[in-house]
């Protein structure tokens, strides 16, 4: 960000040739469409990147911090953005069971056989 700011001739980090001198929804859509065409990537809604980001961050931080960083006013909104997959759920449960010390051990096969059903989030 500092490099972009240093090389910018305006006060905006993402300047654009628009009436406001900064990137707007219409110019962002055009740039996204052009990038998809050049890259050959299958088209997707740009907003899905927000879901991907929050899903990935959720593995590394507590729900309240995720909620604050997402900028949502309602925790239920944040919950709709997080989409854990089966591997993430198994990894989380593995961490829980690995730390369990009630006199018995959990074998890897036990974890793999454990049914996985994600909560409806």
Quick structural summary:
With 121 residues, the chain is mainly alpha-helical. It has helices at 2-7, 25-39, 48-58, 63-70, 75-81, 86-98, 108-113.
Describe this structure in words.
This protein is mainly α. 55% of the residues lie in helices and 0% in strands. The longest helix is centred in the N-terminal third of the chain and has 15 residues. The chain starts with a helix and ends in an 8-residue tail after the last helix. The model has no long low-confidence stretch (mean pLDDT 83).
End-to-end Cα distance, whole Å, is 34 Å
Q: What is the element string, with H for helices and E for strands?
A: HHHHHHH
Number of strands: 0
Largest sheet: none
Q: What is the CA-based Rg, rounded?
A: 21 Å
Note the total helix count.
7
What gross morphology would you assign? Answer: elongated
Structural class: mainly alpha
Helix content: 40-55%
How would you state the average pLDDT, rounded? 83
Low-confidence stretches: none
Strand content: under 5%
